[in-house]
Design a protein that fits this description.
heterodimer, A: alpha+beta, five-stranded mixed beta sheet, two-stranded antiparallel sheet, B: mainly alpha, 3 helical TM bundles of succinate and fumarate reductases, 4 helices, elongated
Chain lengths: 234, 115
């Protein structure tokens, strides 16, 4: 099969280019894209990409495969290869450090803005802060986010305003803490989001939902934040 | 909190609500006019003129014009803040949009009450 990989080494290359590599898949097996990258790296050790857990938990190997963002380690070739061709690019919208490796500083800066930790100004109990099963269930579909950035880098609003719009991933996490019964900073959290960019730059096109490798729904979480803002202000 | 002085109401929630409310006004007016045209197949100039001589229709049309202005401003403000990264040029385009919107509103009032 033919693999076309985005290559850019700022120390050597004037501009990024696509490198075409023909490769035979051993035994014609249906391997994961990450395994294919290892085969490519065996052929050309200069190829750079991030990887760690290789099972969709760490979120290191987010990339754009035949036009759609996803995790290389849990995406089988049969799910993305079209006409025996695969185009691999870095996640769009963030600066490229080298080849498929992107600089995620902007993404993490937005994550930091939403204060991704429990804030509780009441005295800490002797053992732990308890939640009822129903309160805990409110966090399902939110806490599973692994911060791979597939969603935020698939979002045009994040492409155009990565410094102002928090992006689907950060907003899913924002709602994760807004929905937590143990958090007492709900009013402050909401006040920080009530501007024309942070939340409201989302126009609901749902690219985030379509690409999330964990099957989460940031658009739904953003809708809930909007409702909370509306409840607070009317 | 991201601050911005050029948006419609300075609050994302306010802009969002205004855009939804004005969208309902635009839809209602459109349905009314389409309904009127369908129910009046042999419409002539006098019928059309008498429709707009009605004070309720004039108020409804003014509501449409103002809703259209607010809706367009919020929408175009989003487009300019997405696609024009240069602050000076963006402010210029936003100023022209604001001026044109004001001219259209003033002109529409003259048309509605000039019948």
């Amino acid at each position: 099969m033919l693999v076309s990989v985005y290559r850019y080494n700022p120390d050597l290359d004037d501009a990024p280019y696509m490198q075409d590599i023909h490769i035979d898949i051993p035994g014609g097996k249906d391997i994961m894209v990450l395994d294919l990258l290892q085969l490519l790296k065996n052929k050309d050790p200069s190829l750079g990409y991030r990887r760690s857990c290789r099972e969709g938990v760490c979120g290191s190997d987010g990339m754009n495969m035949n036009g759609k963002n996803g995790l290389a380690c849990i995406t089988p070739l049969s799910a993305v290869v079209k006409k025996d061709k695969l185009v691999l690019r870095p996640l769009p919208g963030l600066p490229v450090i080298r080849d498929l490796v992107i600089d995620m500083s902007q993404f993490y800066a937005q994550y930091e803005k939403i204060k991704p930790y429990l804030i509780n100004d009441t005295p800490a109990p002797a053992i732990e802060r308890l939640q009822s099963p129903a309160e805990r269930a409110e966090l399902d579909g939110l806490y599973e986010c692994i911060l791979c950035a597939c969603c935020s880098t698939a979002c045009p609003s994040f492409w155009w305003n990565p410094d102002k719009f928090i992006g689907p991933s950060g907003l899913l996490q924002a709602y994760r803490f807004l929905a937590d019964s143990r958090d007492t900073a709900q009013a402050e959290r909401l006040a920080d989001l009530d501007d024309p960019f942070s939340v409201f730059r989302c126009h609901g096109i749902m690219n985030c939902v379509s690409v999330c490798p964990k099957g989460l729904n940031p658009t739904k979480a953003i809708g809930k934040i909007r409702n909370m803002l509306l409840q607070r202000a009317t | 909190m991201v601050t911005n002085v050029t948006s419609f109401g300075r609050s994302g929630l306010y802009d969002w609500m205004i855009q939804r409310v004005t969208a309902v006004v635009l839809l209602t007016y459109t349905l009314f006019i389409v309904g009127f045209l369908l129910l009046t197949p042999d419409l002539d100039f006098n019928q059309w003129k008498s429709l707009f001589e009605n004070l309720a229709m004039r108020i409804f049309t003014l509501l449409l014009v103002l809703s259209f202005a607010a809706h367009a401003w919020i929408g175009l403000w989003c487009v300019t803040t997405d696609y024009i990264p240069m602050t000076g040029l963006r402010f210029l385009v936003q100023s022209i949009t604001g001026l044109m919107t004001f001219i259209y509103v003033a002109w529409a009032i003259q048309v509605i009450w000039g019948i």
